[in-house]
Amino acid sequence: MAVKSPAKIQAPRTKKHIQSPWGGFFFVLPSIIAMAIFVYGMIGWTVKFSLSNRTSAWSKDNSFAGLTNFTGLLDDPEFTHAFSNLVKFTLVFMIGTLISGLIMALLLEKGIKGEGFFRSIYLYPMAISFIAMGTSWRWLMDSAQGERATGLNLILNKVGLSALENNWYTSEKGSMYAMALPAIWQMSGYVMALFLAGFRGIPDDLREAARVDGASEFKIYRHILFPQLSPTFLTVLIILGHISMKVFDLIYGISGKGYVTKVLAIYMWQVIFDFQNYAKGAAIAVVILVLIAVVVIPYLIYVNKTEEANK
């Protein structure tokens, strides 16, 4: 007797899911609106103020002033002093952080015991806000010397290096170099993490092949590893440059609005809230924005061209 084969079970028919091309757009629309208002809208509002004659919150004079506020900054000795301080801080901060971060990455790159512990120690300063760190470093870099010494000067005194006691941030010659110390201390761990990720991304086959060919460790790092890290070097420089140009809370936490350590962001805050000159303060803000754009935009163009070349 033939056995009938069971009937095939048919799945219920469903309508094909049609993916709307507008789905992704509506998903990011709130972010686009927020960015348009609170980023580009505020930038436009600041630029508008910088080209006006408005000198206070109560002033109704919004007449067009052209570039008067910008040309006036060139004749302002406090602006040029703040700009000079910013250049000094940026150079010392970037060089110091780059070197210290690279050294820490080289120490951890071999995979030493307790790497996770040391990595956490190096990264811990990043968990501290600039303003809290500034308050701590204000005590560490106290300028009192001798029997009244505290912080770093006291440590130097106790270990027999009293000749190295310093005025730190109160000295006009070395104030900005001292200001860079806490910034270097905080950001070195972050730079270390970037370099360490770069080292770990290089295939071990390249090193082994170089060792087989008789290359020393120095030549391996110089001719193989460091050239592979050039994108990481560029990224680090852009990040550090961006941070340094808009530095405010660290310096304010250490020395407040002191003339010796004044940078552009501090002077902008002072012009707006102390001098009530909104137009001039907006002009300083635009200058800071342009300085950051000069650093960031070429990097973005480079990254975009690199991605297109790799496709």
Describe the protein's architecture and organization:
The chain is an all-alpha fold and 311 residues long. It has a domain at 77-141 and 167-310: MetI-like fold. It contains 13 helices and no strands. Helix 7 runs antiparallel to helix 10. The longest helix is centred in the last third of the chain and has 33 residues, at 278-310. It is flat, with a radius of gyration of 28 Å. The chain starts with 22 loop residues before the first helix and ends with a helix. The relative contact order is 0.13. The model has no long low-confidence stretch (mean pLDDT 85).
Map the helices and strands.
Blueprint: H1 23-50, H2 68-74, H3 77-108, H4 115-123, H5 130-140, H6 151-158, H7 175-200, H8 204-212, H9 217-228, H10 230-245, H11 249-255, H12 264-273, H13 278-310
